[in-house]
Amino acid sequence: MFSSKSTEQLAFVSRQLSQLLERSPLPAALQTLSDASPNHYSRDIEYLRRLLEGSAERRPGKDPYHAIQKLLPAVGNSRDTLFREFVAYVRQSRIVFETYSAGVVSLVGYLAAIASVAFVVAMIFAIYVIPTFEEMFAEHRANLPEFTQLVFALGGAGVPVFASLLALTVIAVVLFVRLFHQRIQQMKPLPRWPRWAPMLGRIAETYNFGLFLNYARILGSCGVEPDRAVAEAAALTNQPDTLSLDGLRNKASSREQLPALTELSVATRLGHFDAEVSHQCEQHVGELTLALVETRDRVSAVLKVALYVFVGGLVVAMYLPIFRMGSVI
Q1: Model pLDDT for residues 225-238, shown as the tens digit of each residue
Q2: What pTM does this model have?
Q3: Residues 280, 213 contacting (CB under 8 angstroms)
Q4: Interval 69-102: pLDDT, tens
């Protein structure tokens, strides 16, 4: 999650401050941290001080702690608890997403490399090879094999067009992965539009729901009333307006898109909201990991099949004229 020296320093400072807040109030903890740290950490320490005061401006780069400012108005004087709980959540999320990101980066690199090679080969065949075959067959008043004509349709532009569409698909996947990675690095919810997209929708909804669960749990740990905790968490994580504690208590209005929400609704009606939301936060790590892995595997399978079909069709289309050349001549 932290990919630069500056954000690594901020992560270190936040961990130390979180531990100091367990035994000291915020001003004393900040002073102790400042006295024990080298001068080049002073900027990060000052940033955390202003962050917990609600006056910090957004730092450049991927800073997940800026999301604390959105939770501050609801917690009152429980800033110390908010910071400790949020740092623990960031550390947990970092483990999950860095492991997943490593696999995604290697997969996207592999697909991008294959698509680039296929595009270059297709262009070479379409521009230099197929026209030569067409001239040779035309001299003997014969036509290219039908499959070859189909593959290299539109005046030789068929393969480049297909390769371009394939490359654009890979680029779209890369852009979504980049958007997703940036959002999770900043602990920001994903927009709601991907929920209608196959496979990608599950990631968006599961990730946003995980933010909701953790924000509700963190606010509850800070002494916020459950009704307000649910409302604040739902508003900050792009959840539907109907998601409220009253809605969870009402059996007729419970949403059932996610099994976790159904279980949370039942627990709420039984008066076990706090215990269940803490349990769901722990369980959600596995749910989100599963959603990420399944989506990655399915997207990679679809793109690999498309690439293999493209390359295979290209090879067949190239060899058919060679096999027929003897009968034509």
Answers
A1: 888 888 899 888 88
A2: 0.73
A3: yes
A4: 888 888 888 888 999 999 888 887 776 666 666 6
In this model, does residue 248 exceed pLDDT 80? no
For 103, residues 6+ apart whose C-beta sits below 8 A from its C-beta are 296
Q: In this predicted structure, what is the pLDDT of residue 35?
A: 92
Question: What residue segments make up the domains of the chain, in order of their start?
Answer: 5-61, 93-328
